[in-house]
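Notes from the pairing session

We agreed to fold both candidates in a single pass and log them together. This is the raw record for the first candidate, unedited. Please don't reformat it; downstream parsing expects exactly this layout.

Candidate A
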Amino acid sequence: MDLIKDYFLEANPNPERIGCPDESTIRALAEERLPVSHPGRLHMAECSECFAEYRGFRLKWMNARKGRRRVLAWAVAASLMLFAAGGGLWEYLHLRPEHSSGIEMTMSTSVDAQIDLFNAGTYRGQSDGASDLPAITLPAAIVRLAVTLPRFSDTGRYEILVSKDKTANHLVAKAAGRAQEMNGRELLNVTLDLRAARKGAYFLATVRGEDGGTYYYPVTVK
């Protein structure tokens, strides 16, 4: 296991920190406050600097949690005794799991959404013109997204990014898929996990796999 950790600490240097999530995101991943499917985890496998930060936060969090567990164990034991005395133990064992399952199912439910960019203009990198693009709104959820790519787009692999800026330095979601031609249009289906995104304005980018051609569109997460 130590050999694997040492490998990730040195195998993928990224001194310019290209595409790196911010420190609060790395800390949240280390402390398991973000979903396993969060795109930041994939990034750390490709960035030694982010993996080193993650490992440091993770060790501090695990050491702190060990101390809290000792205190919590005594508190739980005392609570269970009180529940048993008043009949609360039965409620805890039989009603609580059902309630928790309902919450978990709600959080993991996916939402279908469509984006039609066929007649949209395209703006690369830092260029202007965002006000001329169509308004796009996505929910803060797991989104099964169907994208109609702009006119004259090529068939092939694409990535869909959602970030706070047009440099993708503050990435909140990332997915990839293969565009296929249908009725004269290129259609792309991906699944974006936007559960960690706060409500507000973002940019959605299409990145063509063949040459990395990137185009940005304003999007609002609600």
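Candidate B (folded immediately after A)
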Amino acid sequence: MTKESQEWALILGASSGFGAATAVELARSGMNVFGVHLDLRSTLPNAQRVVAEVESLGRRAVFFNTNAADADKRAAVLSSIQETLRSRPDAYVRVFMHSLAFGTLVPYIAEGPKQRVSQRQMEMTLDVMANSLVYWVQDLMALKLMRRGSRVFAMTSSGSTRVIQNYGPVSAAKAALESHVRQLAVELGPSGIAVNSIRAGITDTPAMRKIAGALALYERSAAQNPSGRATTVEDVAKAIAALCDERLYWMTGNVIGVDGGEEITA
């Protein structure tokens, strides 16, 4: 693929964790990158580092520091993307990746209302970590920014089917996310666009460190993993890049484990 590649990746959550690693890996595979992230001054260097890495690979990086779950801001980002691609009619979004990790980590049941999840917190978690996938894909399709051969990936976790302390709202969001992926896979099938969930093993990311007992979970997964170590963000990024191969167009609607065998030995 030449430096004038017209294939772009659009990654939500591009400044850290899985999103950041995938941005760099897809750039290495030849794609330019649109990144959406939400960082304050203290964490903004993370996004700047990813931009620099993408550009060092000879690809373009256009990043937006904004709230991906806000409808007006989503519209503004997509308008800017349209403008960027307008001068090149062959340019399109080859990969859309949903990797938003912003949710409430509190129990359902507690002694007082301030200690348990509220309706607002539950709805926010579902909206950001699950429903926003649908809204972004709807708009990408309406604007004709994706085409036959495009891929959609959404980051789920084993917590979608398991109980983890204080993880209930996020667990519900991950289960909903997987349901959205199945529905989108069916509805986008006639357009030739594959949609899959990626279930990574327990990985050391900023989002993981916010989960109660995360360090113990991480150490246990590393010790039990048949591969002898825990999953890394680079493992997941390489898998996503490989799943973009045009020969894998028939794989859609799946929850794909990228964990070195963690799930079958847990």
